[in-house]
């Protein structure tokens, strides 16, 4: 398992680590209906002994299968962390567990919103058709989709002023 490094294997010239790690070993806990995690994350890392510890640096890469939050179409999103760099104090430790930092850096690279493209037109609010594929006939209908529209209809004890 790549997520743990034996300190005895690391020297001042560096230990080069490259390959794929199963995400199931990293306990991601992502439970979002808009994203499916791949089985593996690819890594290219270098562990170098320094005074007082070990520096691990390199890159991580994986492809997410996502569902657009606007049009509901599936798309691939590449997660790439080219600036992975962490210092680990070794002290009496004979093994370094990289899992928490790997998981954190990958999660920080997740998109804030799962949108297939910045110009995604989404779904028609009348017929539900994907407006990226074709224009629908209800495009000219005026539908008030404001989240406040129902509240605007309320008459919350308004009294008419006497003249």
Explain the overall architecture.
The mean pLDDT is 84. Strand 5 (53-67) and strand 6 form a beta hairpin. This protein is 9% helix and 36% strand. It has one domain (1-163). The protein has helices at 99-108, 149-152, and strands at residues 4-6, 15-22, 35-36, 40-50, 53-67, 74-89, 95-97. The chain is built from two helices and seven strands. The protein has 163 residues and is mainly β. The chain starts with a strand and ends in an 11-residue tail after the last helix. Strands 2, 3, 4, 5 and 6 form a five-stranded antiparallel β-sheet that branches.
Main attributes of the structure:
2 helices; 5-stranded antiparallel sheet; mainly beta; 163 residues; single chain; 7 strands
Q: Fraction of residues in helices?
A: under 10%
How many angstroms does the end-to-end distance come to? 82 Å
Q: What's the rounded overall pLDDT mean? A: 84
Number of domains: 1
The whole-angstrom Rg is 25 Å
Work out the strand percent.
35-45%
Tell me, briefly, the overall form.
elongated
User: What oligomerization state is this entry in?
Assistant: single chain
- Helix count? 2
Summarize the structure.
The chain has 163 residues and is mainly β. The chain is 9% helix and 36% strand.
